[in-house]
Amino acid sequence: MIKCKNCFPQKGCWAQERAKIYGVDEYGEVKGEQNMMNEILQRGPITCAIAVTQELVNYTGGIFVDKSGRKELDHDISVNGWGEENGTKFWIVRNSWGSYWGEGGNFRLIRGVDNLGIESTCSWATPLDTWTKDVRNETKPHAEDAEPKLNLQANEQSTCQRISPKGMK
User: Fold this and answer.
1) Topology classification of domain 24-127
2) Which of 47, 106, 112, 122 has the greatest CB tally within 10 Å of its CB?
């Protein structure tokens, strides 16, 4: 059963009665510099696995070149494009570590040498069109999954206190 929930601070989480449904229409794997470039050009960003090193964690900018040779894949990233600077080819990569990291949450990684294993294990996908007909999950939530209501009531000192639904703090 699909059970989408919405959450809000100080209100908790509750099931959605008509949550939008998203899905994948087509998907596949791609590897190698030229195949990756073709896929990005045809369908947009791809997801690739990379090996993370301490040097990558400490990255602040520029074209990153790992010198350790590490290829144990342990992190997924999005490859959004490619470029070349002063004769050095690179991938444009979006990371998930926040905009404070790297170049606004992105980094540039040397391209064409499978650095950090980036050119060995990638995937692509196209979205399933669920928006044209506004496809939604029509599951009715159970009582315990319904949107919580918060009540404010006056006490003896004429101040308000919060009366929380069962199980909420």
Assistant:
1) Cathepsin B; Chain A (3.90.70)
2) 122
